[in-house]
Specification:
alpha+beta, two-stranded antiparallel ribbon, 3 helices, about 35% helix
Length: about 110
Amino acid sequence: YQGYRSTDKEMEWFWNVMTSLTRSQKAAFLQFVTGSSKVPLNGFAELQGMRGIQRFSIHRVGASSALPAAHTCFNQLDLPVYQNEEELKEKLLLAIEEGAGSFEFA
């Protein structure tokens, strides 16, 4: 985590949301964050990034009005601070849906 701690309520919300997603939503999340809809054969410990193995990370960013953003080269999720778990889920699913099949340069 960057800017978050594992004990922050936002991280609890994030992992609650992740466990509540359907299998296809989880695959879409992986595609959104890593550029691949599948976990590597040996698990997350072997996620590939621009510089070889690159661990998944969550970074605290910006205003709560923004959608989460992803950097697939770094397996990085930029996650704003939201008011509650429901808002986090809504914004995350919207970002995944809007990001499906497209990308932008940051």
